[in-house]
TrEMBL record:
<keyword id="KW-0862">Zinc</keyword>
<keyword id="KW-0378">Hydrolase</keyword>
<dbReference type="GO" id="GO:0046872">
    <property type="term" value="F:metal ion binding"/>
</dbReference>
<keyword id="KW-0540">Nuclease</keyword>
<keyword id="KW-0479">Metal-binding</keyword>
<dbReference type="Pfam" id="PF00753">
    <property type="entry name" value="Lactamase_B"/>
</dbReference>
<dbReference type="InterPro" id="IPR055132">
    <property type="entry name" value="RNase_J_b_CASP"/>
</dbReference>
<feature type="domain" description="Metallo-beta-lactamase">
    <location>
        <begin position="16"/>
        <end position="175"/>
    </location>
</feature>
<keyword id="KW-0269">Exonuclease</keyword>
<dbReference type="InterPro" id="IPR036866">
    <property type="entry name" value="RibonucZ/Hydroxyglut_hydro"/>
</dbReference>
<dbReference type="InterPro" id="IPR011108">
    <property type="entry name" value="RMMBL"/>
</dbReference>
<dbReference type="Pfam" id="PF22505">
    <property type="entry name" value="RNase_J_b_CASP"/>
</dbReference>
<protein>
    <submittedName>
        <fullName>Putative ribonuclease J</fullName>
        <ecNumber>3.1.-.-</ecNumber>
    </submittedName>
</protein>
<keyword id="KW-0694">RNA-binding</keyword>
<dbReference type="InterPro" id="IPR042173">
    <property type="entry name" value="RNase_J_2"/>
</dbReference>
<dbReference type="GO" id="GO:0003723">
    <property type="term" value="F:RNA binding"/>
</dbReference>
<dbReference type="Pfam" id="PF07521">
    <property type="entry name" value="RMMBL"/>
</dbReference>
Length: 414
């Protein structure tokens, strides 16, 4: 099994108007045959890839394989749900291989917006499957090494049967921008400010947090984190050596004592989550910080489809108090960059790996179709586009068995 994540504020059924705060895919298809589950591989530490595992592991009870940073994040989550020391977490390194039941799995480093994002190759009796996880081609990342095409070009000689590939940005032409470009944009935006600056971003985007730490240092500001998930993620980054020693953080309780021009607060709630810090700041009910007229609130995160109403309501609250806001659509500067590949990047990776079959994943149906179109233009012989509930079969013949599995969502308590 590859990854085990959550999503937020989604309906449990497609036609259900009632949403749950935290949901995950119904694991019944796997738990009904868990004796066949040899292990779970977690590709990286984003919530939509690891967040459900602490809640579901008792249903699986198998080893978990991942890299050091993700393991550190996972251990913290397991501790919160009373599973500390109970889950066998096997830490792997780049280019390392493990035999997991019938599968021989190898980890390949690539670039994304979190430390240690990994693709995997899965050697099976039916052939080799290459699973990208989440990725982009970033030649100048803030954390880790730049994208190495040689690692993936070598797969072209390895007879890859199927490439399971991220489709998130498959409808966007061109190439995603680098995290370094985002750092430059945030520096240019924050440097001339005379009041408090608050930045809302995803807590798991450690590269963005490091960029903001550098911006604080270069602009004479003190940076503090407000939000448990941010503090946990930076703690994991420090524990695994991904937080630079020369980027200090102050306790959020000290922000109120600073001149406003020295304040840089990084907070949770960029998607308008009702209990997160940005909502409390907008309502003037945040214990550690008050924002006032002419202070600036930056949304350094994408607007996830479905969250538009909540985010725009949040923006309206700030503007009603004469607090300025800045979203990506308000500026030509890349104050947020995606961690996922656009069409040019998809084409490059398909051309490097040269699989026999493309299996687009991670996206709505139109994104999957867009990914398949790029694969076809990149001379991939066949594209398999399915939907939730379809079973992909690679032997004895390659096909999609439509709607073979009953799917759905379940709610999780946090």
């Amino acid at each position: 099994m590859v990854d085990c994540g959550v999503s937020f504020n989604e309906p449990l059924k497609n036609d259900d108007l009632h949403t749950a705060e935290v949901v995950c895919a119904d694991p019944r298809f796997i738990t009904q045959q868990k004796e066949r589950l040899a292990g779970i591989v977690i590709t990286h530490a984003h919530e939509d890839h690891v967040g459900a595992l602490p809640f579901l592991w008792k249903r699986f009870k198998c080893p978990v394989y991942t890299t050091a940073f993700t393991a550190e994040v996972l251990h913290r989550k397991l501790q919160q749900v009373g599973l500390a020391g109970q889950v066998p977490v096997i830490v792997v390194k780049e280019n390392e291989s493990k035999q997991i039941g019938a599968f021989h799995v190898t980890w390949l480093a690539l670039t994304h917006s979190v430390p240690e994002p990994f693709a995997i190759t899965i050697h099976t009796p039916a052939g080799k499957v290459f699973h990208t996880g989440d990725w982009k081609i970033d030649n100048h990342p803030i954390i880790g090494n730049g994208f190495s095409p040689q690692r993936f070009q070598a797969l072209a000689n390895d007879n890859v049967l199927a490439m399971v590939c991220d489709s998130t940005n498959a409808l966007r032409s061109g190439h995603s921008e680098s995290e370094t470009a985002c750092y430059d944009a945030l520096l240019a935006t924050i440097a001339p400010e005379k009041g408090r600056v608050v930045v809302g971003c995803f807590s798991s985007n450690v590269a963005r947090l490091v960029s903001l730490g550098r911006v604080a240092k270069e602009t004479g500001r003190y940076m503090a984190l407000i939000g448990r998930s941010l503090i946990n993620m930076v703690g994991a980054a420090k524990a695994t050596g991904y937080w630079p020693d020369d980027l200090p953080l102050i306790d959020a309780s000290h922000l109120g004592y600073l001149p406003k021009e020295e304040v840089l607060a990084v907070v949770t709630g960029s998607q308008g989550e009702p209990r997160a810090t940005l909502n409390r700041l907008a309502a003037d009910s945040c214990f550690d910080l008050t924002v006032e007229a002419d202070d600036l609130v930056i949304f350094s995160a994408m607007m996830i489809p479905g969250n538009e109403k909540a985010i725009m309501g949040l923006v309206a609250q700030f503007k009603g108090r004469n607090i300025r806001t800045l979203q990506q659509q308000d500026t030509d500067l890349p104050i947020h960059v995606s961690g996922h590949p656009c069409r040019d990047e998809l084409a490059q990776l398909y051309s490097l790996v040269r699989p026999k079959f493309a299996v687009p994943v991670h996206g709505e149906p139109e994104h999957l179709r867009g990914n398949a179109e790029v694969a076809k233009l990149s001379q991939v012989p066949s594209q398999l586009v399915g939907q939730n509930g379809d079973l992909y079969q690679f032997a004895p013949q390659v096909c999609i068995r439509r709607q073979l599995v009953k799917t759905g969502r379940i709610a999780l308590a946090r």
